[in-house]
Amino acid sequence: MRAVVQNDKNRVVSAMAALAAVAAVAVVSGCAGPGDEAAVRPAAGQQAHRAAAAPDDHAALVAAARRWGLDAVPLRPPAPPKRKPTITARDGFEVDGQVEDDLPPVFTTIPTRKKVVFLTIDDGAEKDPDFLRMMGELHIPYTAFLSNYLVKDDYGYFRRMQAEGHTLNNHTLTHPYLPGLTYDEQKHEICGMQDIMRRQFGKAPTVFRPPYGNYNGDTLRAAKACGIKYAPIWDEEVFVDHWEYREWDRSLHPGDIVLTHFRGRDDWDGTMVDDMRRFLNKVTRDGYAVARLEDYL
Ligand SMILES: [Zn+2]
């Protein structure tokens, strides 16, 4: 049943209501694109989920979705691809020497036909324990891009994330506008963060995101010199009260990378949990599951 999270009065969801919900999703998805596949996926995904999960697991997920105030249980992502997709720089996002010098590609979407999106969370200012609990109970994978000046007061918070299987990646030492810096200064920002991550988290990442999504040729050359292989940016950004889209169609696409930030009430009108509720409700409503970025890299 999709409409599992309701108030108590509606706890008993009739089969008719559930069918109506699926039909409504089908109508919406049908307008959006290669119709039939999109229209059928949410229901099929939900069945696959129910079949795959032991009854107790499913009951726990339903309970967690209700506890965190979600409209529906998040869809379970498909198994990771056996063969990783080939990732190249997005058209128009290359720099001189991109291919010849094998520079880390900048991209906004992972090439896949699966209805998955990837959640990436930047900077590291807010350290909300409820966020960790929510994502753990709902089994939602995500990737964090950390900037040292924001995380150095509590590396332990991010170690907990790492212990739960989430990947920590490089977002520079001080979050500067990199194209305004020399090659050496950029290299210091990126390699310096690699060193800190190796010391604090046991491993230097191979994934890096330039602050603000701004970079130039020196950025990618410096990143490569520091051991970076990928420089994903994003196709959508979710805030606590709205979404922003890179594309004109203002919708999610298979493989899209979604950005949000570790922010709380100091920065916007809500908590990390509120932000994640907005993210998950839309993703699930549109028939997408959240998959693990590193499974595709
Ligand atoms: Zn940032």
From TrEMBL:
InterPro entries from the UniProt entry: Glyco_hydro/deAcase_b/a-brl (IPR011330), NODB_dom (IPR002509), Polysacc_deacetylase_ArnD (IPR050248)
One Pfam family matching this protein: Polysacc_deac_1
Leader sequence segment: 1-26
Keywords for the protein's UniProt record, in alphabetical order: Hydrolase, Signal
EC number(s) per entry: 3.-.-.-
Single Gene Ontology MF annotation: hydrolase activity
NodB homology domain sequence ranges: 115-297
Protein's name according to its UniProt entry: Polysaccharide deacetylase family protein
